[in-house]
Amino acid sequence: MKIQVKENNYTIDIVYKCEEKIKNFLNKNRDSKYLVITDENVYNLYSERLKNIMYGLNFYIFKFPAGEKSKSMENYININKFLLENNFNRGDIIIAFGGGVVGDISGFVAATYLRGIDFIAMPTTLLSMIDSSVGGKNGINFMNLKNQIGSFYFPKYVYIDYSFLETLDDRNINNGLAEIFKYSVLKDKNLFYYLKSCNKLDYKKIIYESLNIKLDFVKEDERDKGKRQKLNLGHTIGHGIESLSNYKLNHGESIGIGTIYMARAAYKMGIAKSDFSKELILAFKNHNLPTSYDFDTDEILEILKHDKKINKNLINVILPIKIGEVINKKVTFDELREIVELGKGNE
Amino acid sequence: MKIQVKENNYTIDIVYKCEEKIKNFLNKNRDSKYLVITDENVYNLYSERLKNIMYGLNFYIFKFPAGEKSKSMENYININKFLLENNFNRGDIIIAFGGGVVGDISGFVAATYLRGIDFIAMPTTLLSMIDSSVGGKNGINFMNLKNQIGSFYFPKYVYIDYSFLETLDDRNINNGLAEIFKYSVLKDKNLFYYLKSCNKLDYKKIIYESLNIKLDFVKEDERDKGKRQKLNLGHTIGHGIESLSNYKLNHGESIGIGTIYMARAAYKMGIAKSDFSKELILAFKNHNLPTSYDFDTDEILEILKHDKKINKNLINVILPIKIGEVINKKVTFDELREIVELGKGNE
């Protein structure tokens, strides 16, 4: 399966173990040097497959410990040093081989080394396959804030091979699944009912449908100033929950809870006609996704003060009005406090 | 005088002490916080004018020692910390008030803080007025290499007030003048003869004409992959000379010498019909610009190995074929060695 992203001139291949696709792409640039950026977990699992993909090419590997801590300024500097010391120039290419952390830091390095060199995304987690590997956002964490520094920069090619999902545990799959639920609430009622009732997921289908929804929101608003912001459904509270839990809840779990809270608040505010948060909770429970998290409203608001979506003291919140449709609302911090309180409610 | 840059949606005002222009622009965003980034020299000279311009607005000042050393990763990190600690968000704005160093690092911070916030350029040197303040390139130095890390990102407004030139010494003026000579060799014979014969420069005229030439080369090739590269006339050898001189020669002086060497080489290679390097030398001497620099070819080639314009072991050199026209030639390192040798020659 193939998606052509015309606006930003790249191709996404969605395949099951079809390495010829990426080998063909890489072999078009046989004169280039490649830097594969990856983490130790992914490397330990897939070094043989990686070597097969890179066979015959001039390539280097840069790996770091798996996990959010590696998305740091220090690591960003180290990768830049490595590129420089190995004389990488503008014709050379970065491959991001891993999940969101690898993709985000690799994309930021690619965007800024020599003011930008090409990069290729080879995501290995469900979350990165359906979210961060497309859309052009990249970044690193800074002073404990997520993606505080970063840019918008698009890959030249995205190779999504869902055979890589076979080594992921359930919680990691769910990390992506919650974002797919979010896409369904955003725009696709049928996808929601498919996810709700289904037990054995058809990855090809859900990856393809998720990417099409994401790309539709991105294409008219690459720089995230309008329509694209709707992709942040569940993320305002979600980021706060993720942070308050000290990352014991993962990204998907947190924004899933955020989505439920927004649905509940939307109903109580009279924006949504029915309280479909109940339906979300049932669907989430079917996939062992958490559906609530206890927190202090003041504590979460303190974290949300640094939200990137704040503009002139107003913050954007995305409220679902039914399954398949959301609205974008700019609110003050006092209004946000009320929305958070309404969202908490009882199950 | 006003230039409207349609492609990237910003305005350049070229004025003499007409601060109402910038005040009007800033007052359209009265709700924003401003960070003025500047160096200590500029601040000491112009703190009163700055305070007048910023009067009534919510602004902060971040200043650092003048000079190339401040274009560092460390300084980049410090500015990001300052923004974060003062809760700057996406609706807030950076103002770069100074020369090229201030503009380059400020632009890179603006491009990457929260994945990009708005910035305004207020250049104070002739070089930054006619070159780095427009065109979108920014960056910091890294491991002794210039602009090794950076991006492409455009300002929202450029305020060029050439009254700021009144505190510049002759060498600093010449730093810009050499780049204006370069523009004339690139595209405008009349500008060349004006510069050559003129003793009292009409700043408004030369700034306006230089920017129009630069913008013409940038607009079809923002990302520097084709036509825009011609703006690098004199820069390949020039960057090497600047570095070999340990920055005792400034940027303009170095690329001026580079332009002379390229003209001489082009003639000896049969690409240029006449040896107009002699005419360049006469013109440069009229403005007390240096016209040669002794260096070892191997030493300069070692530096040029890190040139950002290298792509797959080929390097771009720009060779003038007459005053007002240049060609772009991709050469190997061995060919570059020959060109450098031909360029050296005798005066």
From TrEMBL, chains A, B:
<keyword id="KW-0170">Cobalt</keyword>
<dbReference type="InterPro" id="IPR056179">
    <property type="entry name" value="DHQS_C"/>
</dbReference>
<keyword id="KW-0520">NAD</keyword>
<dbReference type="Pfam" id="PF01761">
    <property type="entry name" value="DHQ_synthase"/>
</dbReference>
<keyword id="KW-0479">Metal-binding</keyword>
<dbReference type="GO" id="GO:0005737">
    <property type="term" value="C:cytoplasm"/>
</dbReference>
<keyword id="KW-0547">Nucleotide-binding</keyword>
<keyword id="KW-0456">Lyase</keyword>
<protein>
    <submittedName>
        <fullName>3-dehydroquinate synthase</fullName>
    </submittedName>
</protein>
<keyword id="KW-0862">Zinc</keyword>
<dbReference type="Pfam" id="PF24621">
    <property type="entry name" value="DHQS_C"/>
</dbReference>
<dbReference type="InterPro" id="IPR050071">
    <property type="entry name" value="Dehydroquinate_synthase"/>
</dbReference>
<dbReference type="InterPro" id="IPR030960">
    <property type="entry name" value="DHQS/DOIS_N"/>
</dbReference>
<dbReference type="GO" id="GO:0046872">
    <property type="term" value="F:metal ion binding"/>
</dbReference>
<dbReference type="GO" id="GO:0000166">
    <property type="term" value="F:nucleotide binding"/>
</dbReference>
<dbReference type="GO" id="GO:0009073">
    <property type="term" value="P:aromatic amino acid family biosynthetic process"/>
</dbReference>
<dbReference type="GO" id="GO:0009423">
    <property type="term" value="P:chorismate biosynthetic process"/>
</dbReference>
<dbReference type="InterPro" id="IPR016037">
    <property type="entry name" value="DHQ_synth_AroB"/>
</dbReference>
<dbReference type="InterPro" id="IPR030963">
    <property type="entry name" value="DHQ_synth_fam"/>
</dbReference>
<dbReference type="GO" id="GO:0003856">
    <property type="term" value="F:3-dehydroquinate synthase activity"/>
</dbReference>
